[in-house]
Specification:
Elements (H helix, E strand, L loop, with lengths): L1 H26 L13 E6 L4 E2 L3 E3 L1 E9 L8 E5 L5 H10 L4 H4 L2 E5 L8 E8 L2 E7 L8 E8 L13 E6 L2 E3 L3 E3 L1 E9 L5 E8 L5 H9 L10 E10 L4 E8 L2 E6 L3 E2 L6 E2 L6 E7 L1
Parallel strand pairs: 1-4, 3-9, 10-13, 12-20
Antiparallel strand pairs: 1-2, 4-7, 5-6, 5-8, 7-16, 8-9, 10-11, 13-16, 14-15, 14-17, 17-20, 18-19
Length: 286
């Protein structure tokens, strides 16, 4: 009898505990969902004769929209000036240094995307505090288009990084990215994890054209006659080691060739990264 009485008491206590737990759960204050921190946004206006943008931008993650109102494609490169370096010093060095190595030593390149005439391009940069320059070399013989700006650190909470659907890592000397992706708008995170500067061009080669043909054309040093044997689908400008950014792209279905044409200044004589084998095939499916 005693055993049965203790068993019944135990069941009653367990039932009471469950009831109290359920009541406590009903009366508990729900944990508030953190409010997402909006990402600061900057618009860069570019035409065939001018490049304008705010002189002051927040440091950290910034959404940059490039709007091209010109008649030609434009793709400014964003660069952070080293401490103590002025725009005038950088431009003078770039004009007088034929190899380009001295000018590169004065900045850290963040890259940048190209916008077609009348189109816009979305990017996200992670600006460290400091002085910057945006420079577009253009396709003609005129002077480059430039704008200066300063990234200033704030005191508020930082926004979250964009959710990347495609990760592209640029290393010496290869691209680490998926073999195949779906068509449609994709957020690419581009990160230079190598020891040298790198760029990323996505090209649609003409029928019958090979990578060797493109390499021969680039290495010839001669002015090409007529249009190139490929169509540029997307391009990310030179980026220094350790830098990263995000780019929104919408590639149509097809097979593309991903290339880096930049020179390797550590080789004698200098070789292109393409000659080192920095090439990759990317397939975009429906």
């Amino acid at each position: 009898m005693i055993g049965k009485r203790w068993m019944a008491t135990g069941w009653r206590l367990a039932a009471a505990a469950l009831l109290m737990g359920a009541l406590a759960a009903c009366n508990a204050t729900p944990t508030p969902t953190p409010t997402p921190v909006p990402m600061p946004a900057v618009t860069v206006e570019i035409s065939d004769s001018a490049l304008t943008m705010p002189a002051d931008v927040p440091a950290g993650l910034v959404a940059v929209t490039l709007k091209n109102s010109g008649q030609a494609p434009h793709g400014p490169i964003f660069a952070r000036l080293n401490d103590g370096v002025t725009q005038e010093q950088f431009m003078e060095t770039m004009q007088t240094d034929e190899s380009g190595t001295a000018a590169l030593a004065l900045v850290s390149l963040l890259g940048g995307a190209q916008a077609q005439p009348g189109a816009s391009q979305q990017m996200v940069f992670d600006f460290k505090p400091g002085a910057y320059i945006a420079i577009d070399m253009g396709e003609g013989a005129g002077p480059p288009l430039m704008a200066n700006f300063t990234a200033t650190a704030g005191s508020g909470p930082a926004p979250a990084e964009p959710a990347a659907t495609v990760n592209a890592e640029l290393i010496d000397f290869q691209f680490t990215l998926p073999d195949q992706i779906k068509t449609g708008a994709q957020t690419w995170k581009i990160a230079n994890k190598g020891g040298q500067w790198h760029e990323m061009g996505i090209f649609k080669l003409n029928e019958g054209v090979t990578v060797d043909d493109v390499m021969a054309m680039m290495m010839s040093g001669e002015e090409s006659q007529g249009p190139p044997p490929f169509e540029t689908m997307a391009f990310w400008a030179p980026m220094s080691q350790g830098e990263h950014a995000w780019l929104t792209m919408d590639l149509p279905p097809g097979t593309y060739t991903v290339l880096c044409f930049l020179p390797d200044f550590s080789s004698t004589p200098p070789m292109s990264h393409l000659q080192h084998g920095m090439v990759r095939t990317l397939t975009v499916t429906e």
